[in-house]
Amino acid sequence: MSKLHTQHLLLLLFLRLLIKKITTATEVKALVKWKTSLTSSESLSSWSLSNATNLCHWTGVICDATGSVAKIILPNSTLTSTLNELDFASFANLIQLKIHLNLLVEMLPSNTSTLSKLTHLDLSGNNFTQPFPSSIGRLSELQDLQLYNNSLSGLLNLQKACRFDFGSNYLESPESTASANMPVVIFLALNLNKMTSEFPPFILNCSTLTHLDLSQNQLNGPIPALLATKLN
Ligand SMILES: *[C@@H]1O[C@H](CO)[C@@H](O)[C@H](O)[C@H]1NC(C)=O
Ligand SMILES: *[C@@H]1O[C@H](CO)[C@@H](O)[C@H](O)[C@H]1NC(C)=O
Ligand SMILES: *[C@@H]1O[C@H](CO)[C@@H](O)[C@H](O)[C@H]1NC(C)=O
Ligand SMILES: *[C@@H]1O[C@H](CO)[C@@H](O)[C@H](O)[C@H]1NC(C)=O
Ligand SMILES: *[C@@H]1O[C@H](CO)[C@@H](O)[C@H](O)[C@H]1NC(C)=O
Ligand SMILES: *[C@@H]1O[C@H](CO)[C@@H](O)[C@H](O)[C@H]1NC(C)=O
């Protein structure tokens, strides 16, 4: 191997290590900043700047092979406050965010869309109230969106979510809730909402639908015959 070649390899290795270090430091800072904003965070005692070297073993944090945060899984952890201080732009490798059954309110920060690899988002059983930022539609890898039992009423525009649970919220008009373009929805729950119109026509556009729950609304009018050919 030539001397020049070896130098190139060493430089590449050095750059990789540097990037990994910067990524980790950014993730650590972002998580600690969010923790500090929570009014209740007893469950997150391992999350601290002085414990940065243990990031991949912090409560609820799962890393990928490069040591970058891949999953944040904190169900039923009495997290209280908002997500406003969680800077999603710091988590380029996040694939799952599951923070269901907590006491979080308001809504996702608008830069959620920077989570370009996110496949699973579970916010169910909190009290999110504000309309979803339209940037959620730019989560091009999102497969599973769980929003069950919040106080949501907003508009959703999803490219690709296969499982989509919007049960037990305050949806009134399904037409304005989901975009006409939900091509690959397989599981769709809109039960326990406040829908009073006719059967939401956009559902017939979900070409891959196999599970549909519209129970406990006040829908009226006929169920389109076409639906029977879909749900089988
Ligand atoms: C650092 O994190 C590890 C892994 O979660 C934990 O066992 C340890 O108690 C933490 N240390 C401090 C000082 O919080
Ligand atoms: C949530 O946590 C509490 C206390 O740890 C526990 O008693 C309860 O069963 C948990 N609820 C669920 C739905 O897991
Ligand atoms: C993302 O949003 C958070 C919280 O609103 C904010 O602190 C942060 O600066 C934003 N980051 C970018 C890159 O826009
Ligand atoms: C959810 O938030 C709304 C608006 O702030 C409030 O009226 C409602 O009582 C809250 N619900 C729960 C279950 O905390
Ligand atoms: C929804 O959340 C509220 C407030 O946490 C809780 O009291 C209620 O039992 C939940 N409802 C369902 C259907 O899960
Ligand atoms: C169904 O899809 C077609 C073609 O994309 C579109 O023109 C129509 O508006 C959609 N219908 C509903 C009810 O969303």
What does it look like?
With 232 residues, the protein is α/β, with parallel strands linked by helices. The chain has a single domain, classed as Leucine-rich repeat, LRR (right-handed beta-alpha superhelix), CATH 3.80.10.10. It is built from two helices and eleven strands, in the order H-E-E-E-E-E-E-E-E-E-E-E-H. The protein has an eight-stranded mixed β-sheet, with no helix packed on it. A three-stranded parallel β-sheet has the order 3-5-7, with no helix packed on it. The termini are far apart. The mean pLDDT is 85. It binds 2-acetamido-2-deoxy-beta-D-glucopyranose (6 copies). The site of one 2-acetamido-2-deoxy-beta-D-glucopyranose has 2 residues, from loops. It is found in: Membrane. One of its GO terms (molecular function) is kinase activity. This is MDIS1-interacting receptor like kinase 2-like protein. Keywords: Kinase, Leucine-rich repeat, Membrane, Receptor, Repeat, Signal, Transferase. InterPro entries: DNA_repair-toleration, Leu-rich_rpt, LRR_dom_sf, LRR_N_plant-typ.
Mean pLDDT: 85
> Low-confidence stretches at least 5 residues in length (pLDDT < 50)?
none
Distance between the termini: 62 Å
**Rg from alpha-carbon coordinates:** 21 Å
Pfam family, one: LRR_1
InterPro entries: DNA_repair-toleration, Leu-rich_rpt, LRR_dom_sf, LRR_N_plant-typ
GO molecular function: kinase activity
Keywords: Kinase, Leucine-rich repeat, Membrane, Receptor, Repeat, Signal, Transferase
What characteristics describe this protein?
single chain, 232 residues, alpha/beta, Leucine-rich repeat, LRR (right-handed beta-alpha superhelix), 8-stranded mixed β-sheet, 2 helices, 11 strands, binds 2-acetamido-2-deoxy-beta-D-glucopyranose
